[in-house]
Amino acid sequence: QSAVLCIRGGKFNYQGTKRWLEDNLDHTDSSLLQDNVAFVLCLDTLGNGDTMHLHVSKPPKEGSPQFTLLKELELVSESQFPDVKFSMVHKKINLADDMLAWEHERFGIRRLPAFTLSHLASHRLAQRASIMDARSVSPSSRHGAGEPPAGPHVDVQKLSRNTKLVAEALARVIYNLTEKGAPGDLQIFTEQMQVQDEQLSAVVDWLTAQPRAAQLVDKDSSVVSTLEYHMGHYLKDVKRHYVRADKRDPEFVFYDQLKQTMNAYR
User: Fold this and answer.
1) Across residues 178-186, what is the average pLDDT?
2) Residue 203 to residue 207: CA distance in whole angstroms
């Protein structure tokens, strides 16, 4: 297995993803990437909620790996996580919009099958653009009894559950477990392979305490180093790709500093 770790630049119309695709499709033998990628799964806003939506630009055809993933997500959520309501949301890519709705649309434009998993039903919901994605606190410490914390807080228990759901569904796709007759409630990631909630909580605590805006993240960022460390622990080949915005890029407008003189008379 291998993974590419990049700051995708979500607030900048997924410039990280765009540049990675350009580097791997325009400057190399693009057929290698297109022939060996069954699908691309993008994860977005999975730290809360009891719903999970698979956002697609084109409904997957029956018999394709994409359709298999859809069915496995439905099966695992129904059999192992009945408190999660799973559904597919179809939305065509609107190239007339200045900003793409989801990250998978960057791949769809380049003819790579892709989806985005999110607990949000729409990209227009305010929670997605909020800067209040902070670590949740107990109601008794900051709020009145029963009053939820403000903003789209991160619920580690639900993040852990959603991680397990995605992992179980992907494993069933990779090993064709449904075709082999494995029951839907078969749990693959158990004992030492299961999600370690304490470790996940520690990572979330640390990440939500760091500035993660794309314009503040450089090559020496501790956020990137920490993500690379954790991914390198589980994956064989992790690489960094650095992207710097180009002034000639039509998707960006760069403004020079504006200096004004103010005179005060008495």
Assistant:
1) 94
2) 6
Longest CA–CA span in the chain (Å) reads 87
Contacts for 93 with CB less than 8 Å, ≥ 6 apart: 57, 100, 101, 105, 108, 109
Q: What is the pLDDT of residue 117?
A: 96
Note whether 55 and 115 are within 8 A (CB): yes
Pair of tokens at residue 210? 């760091």
Instruction: Give buried/exposed letters for 188-216 (b at 16+ CB in 10 A, else e).
Output: beeeeeeeeeeeebeebeeeeeeeeeeee
What b/e sequence results for 107-116 when a residue is b if at least 16 CB atoms lie within 10 Å of its CB, and e otherwise? bbebebbbbb
Q: Is the pLDDT of residue 50 over 90?
A: yes
Confidence of residue 138 (pLDDT cuts 50, 70, 90): very low
Task: Give the per-residue pLDDT at 148.
Answer: 47
Q: What integer pLDDT is reported at residue 238 of this predicted model?
A: 87
CA distance 60 to 81: 23
Q: What is the pLDDT of residues 56-103, one digit of tens each?
A: 999 999 999 999 999 999 999 999 999 999 999 999 999 899 899 999
Q: What are the strands of the beta sheet with 51-56, ordered from one edge?
A: 40-43, 114-118, 51-56, 85-90
* pTM, to two decimals: 0.84
Q: Please report the pLDDT score of residue 166 as a whole number.
A: 96
